[in-house]
Design brief:
Number of domains: 1
Helix content: over 70%
Number of helices: 4
Strand content: under 5%
Oligomer: single chain
């Protein structure tokens, strides 16, 4: 896991995973607890965490795209569009980021 921190694409992959997992927990644990058990505390905690991870992912996508000199129309926009689709970060990692990471 620590090897991800050594490269910009590795850090972006890690952020994609964390953002996706935070959405999973938010949607399948925190929101049901809020509406069925009347326990909104987890949404109040996880909502901002997920939002911060999402913003970090978007900003890091631009940063890595500039550092790696990605053509915007070929890679960067696909990553940005994919992160707006629920659970799209898992797809982004599998189809775009993992192959790029392996090329390094």
């Amino acid at each position: 896991m620590l090897t991800y921190f050594k490269t910009p694409i590795g850090r972006l992959r890690l952020l994609a995973f964390l953002e996706g997992v935070s959405l999973l927990i938010l949607v399948f644990v925190a929101v049901p607890l809020k509406y069925f058990a009347h326990f909104p505390v987890m949404v109040k905690i996880l909502g901002p965490i997920h939002g911060a991870l999402f913003l970090l992912f978007v900003f890091n996508t631009f940063q890595v795209g500039i550092e790696q000199q990605w053509k915007f129309k070929e890679i960067t926009w696909k990553i940005l569009v994919g992160c707006f689709i629920p659970f799209g970060t898992f797809y982004i990692d599998a189809k775009i980021l993992r192959p790029l990471y392996r090329k390094q």
